[in-house]
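hey m, so remember when u said the tokens were messed up on ur end? i reran from scratch. heres the input so u can diff it against urs
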Amino acid sequence: MSRSIKKGPFTDPKLLKKVSKLKIGDKTIIKTWSRDSVVTPEMVGFTFGVHNGKDHISVYVVENMVGHRLGEFAPTRKFVKHGGRMQREAEMAAAENQKKELASAQEKASTTGAKTLKSE
């Protein structure tokens, strides 16, 4: 459920205090655990270290992020991938085909280079 319009957006006061101390363009990472804080226009141009439960994920704030929450840009779950043995085999076959194509392209380039040297 969203926050009341009457109350306005929530941003942690400690976070706003940290932002106000820094100068625009400062490369210092501001560490925060406040994932529910809304990005305000004053935060644009700063880098935040948003905690995801394990680490601090670096988030550089741009204008398009204003109005969103900091937690949206630091995922808490790691997606591994779907599939098992069949998926792995398909990826291996695709990698092999790519290697063969690269080798044939290099061979073709070397033979055409040799022909141009002979014709000169």
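this time it looks ok to me. Helices lie at 13-21, 85-119. if urs says something different then somethings off w ur setup not the seq
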